[in-house]
Amino acid sequence: MSHRIPVPRATFIAQLQPPRPSRFRAARLLSVLVLGCVALGSIGRAATYYVSPGGNDANTPTQAQNISTPWKTIQKAATSMAAGDTCLIRAGTYRETAAVAASGNATSPITFQAYGSEIVTISGTDAVSGWTLESPNVYYASLSGSLGDGNQVFQNGTMKPEARWPNAGSSFPWQNSSVKPSADWAYVATAGYTNNVAGWFTDPNLPNLNWTGATVHIMSGYGWIMASPKVTSYTDASKQIVTDDAHGNSAAYTIGAGNEYYLTGIKGAMDSPGEWFYETSSSRLYFYSSSTPTNVEAKKRNYGFDLRGRAYINLVNLHFLACTIQTDAGSTNETFNGLSMQYLGHGSTNASIFGLQLRNGCTLRN
Questions:
Q1: Model-level pTM?
Q2: CA angle, 92 as apex, 91 and 93 as ends, to 5°?
Q3: For residues 279 and 136, is the Cβ–Cβ distance under 8 A?
Q4: In a 10 Å sphere around its CB, with 0-12 CB exposed, 13-18 middle and 19+ buried, how is residue 291 labelled?
């Protein structure tokens, strides 16, 4: 007599499935190892590069990861870095616009940071040298290129006034138009318009200079904004300035008696230490000084970093002078941490470049 021994279903199924050959298990283990190595390799690629004024951009990326053989410019690092990389910048002044070539990501941002507690300055200026004495107290030096209304000059890190009348007061550049009378403002005596255009005014205190071509910076009308009409003619006998202002039919902006103003754009107005004038025709910067000027810088760039179309970029503990950071709608999830920024944008009339624009997901912290 035969006897059947019941076999549990799960056991029965297991008995029907032959064990997988060891080669399949080995392949599965190998694939896991490969994926793990790829992940580790991705993390391992993150590098720390060094930049120093005494560096050399001819150094290889491997050399630039050694603090003793850094690159010279931030731009060199910005061109070479990938997600997760860090650039440590040694003390000094960097006169460049660093255009970052790649984006970081949420877990691996690209970071530009001052090395330790060192002071790193990203400057929009270039040093000016090679001064020649033209006349008593008036020096000039060659300076190619002009930012037009954005021209700006510094000495020993302090902004200097463009040649003007009346001379700038001690509170420059923050003169207060609410204080009347003020030594750094002049005041309109009489004013009028010819057919509501060609606004004119008189001021008995105007010095005897040819003001034709000058710019009038005037708090006209209700004083809401500063207008900047050009002088089309000047008559010294009547102390009358005629401008191209055409707001004669708009009381809010009409030039009128009592409006405060000052004049720039005439070389002959240079008569005070630190005043400057840029002559486009000769590409010369003029500077008023009792001795050969030193430590003079002129603005040449509007931006210290170009982050347009780049995301997840960190800028840490950097100082910006006379420049800002260029961004656009694609500049997302940036972090600006511990930045010190002076004179981000400048315009002698209406500045078109100003401030720091934060885009979607960006963070500003100190």
A1: 0.83
A2: 145
A3: no
A4: exposed
The answer to whether residues 130 and 276 touch, using CB atoms and an 8 Å cutoff, is no
Within a 13 Å sphere around the CA of 239, how many CA atoms are in the beta-carbon half? 12
* Residue 264 tokens, joined: 């720039």
Structure tokens at 209: 């200079």
CB neighbours of residue 149 within 10 Å: 15
Strands 240-243 and 231-235, sheet pairing: antiparallel
Yes or no: say if 102 and 65 are a contact pair by the CB < 8 Å rule.
Answer: no
Residue 116 to residues 47, 129, 284, Cα–Cα distance (Å): 17, 32, 40
**DSSP string computed for 39-64:** HHHHHHT--EEEE-TT--TTS-HHHH
Q: Which of 261, 258, 270, 225 is nearest to 243 (CA)?
A: 261
Residues 98-113 pLDDT 10s: 999 999 999 999 999 9
Q: What gap in Å lies between CA 145 and CA 224, rounded to an integer?
A: 33
In this structure, what DSSP letter does residue 17 have? Answer: S
Contact 127, 91 (CB under 8 A): no
- Model confidence pLDDT, tens digit, residues 243-300: 999 999 999 999 999 999 999 999 999 999 999 999 999 999 999 999 999 999 999 9
CA angle, 59 then 60 then 64, to 5°: 75
Distance in angstroms (rounded) separating the CA atoms of residues 21 and 14:
15
Q: Are 236 and 170 within 8 A, CB to CB?
A: no
Three-state SS annotation for 48-116: EEEECCCCCCCCCHHHHCCCCCCECCHHHHHHHCCCCCEEEECCEEECCCEECCCCCCCCCCEEEEECC
How far is 227 from 255, CA to CA, in rounded Å?
9
